[in-house]
Amino acid sequence: MDVIHRLGECTAYEIRDNLPDPPGYGAVRRLLTIMEEKGFVAKRQDGPRYVYRGAVPREAARESALRHLLGTFFGGSVEHAVRALLDLKGARLDPEELERVSRMIDDARQEGR
Fold first, then answer.
1. What is the mean pLDDT of residues 69-86?
2. 101: which residues sit within 8 A by CB, 6+ positions away?
3. Which residues have a Cβ under 8 Å from the Cβ of 111 and sit 6 or more positions away?
4. Which of 47, 80, 81, 107 has the fewest Cβ atoms nearer than 10 Å?
């Protein structure tokens, strides 16, 4: 889904070409079929090939992925996820970003989130 959201519309070959350590073409096509059956992607025919696009709005997909990530790796804890982000090697917040994050936390506190 990362590749599809990044490229917008793409073929199975384009998806495969944009994956690190890509599987075979058949595996990509099979996964696309499963994702289409589940309603995550839609396809249209363009000559002899299919062109795929996300069927779920990007914001909804992002929220779903974040919920899954929180549940799977952080036991549902936003605090643990934020700590992991702050401890991530090579990830640095410049002073402006730190100020914006601080304001987001203040806003969430005021809204009771």
1. 92
2. 93
3. none
4. 47
Average pLDDT over residues 38-64: 91
Please state, in angstroms and rounded to a whole number, the distance separating the CA atoms of residues 107 and 91: 24
Contact indicator for 73, 62 with CB cutoff of 8 Å: no
CB neighbour list of residue 53: distance below 8 Å, 6 or more residues apart: 4, 8, 9, 10, 41, 42, 43, 44
User: What DSSP designation does 48 have?
Assistant: T
Closest CA to 8 of 37, 51, 49, 45: 51
Please report the pLDDT score of residue 11 as a whole number.
Answer: 96
Tens of pLDDT, residues 93-113: 888 988 998 999 999 999 987
CA distance 44 to 76: 37
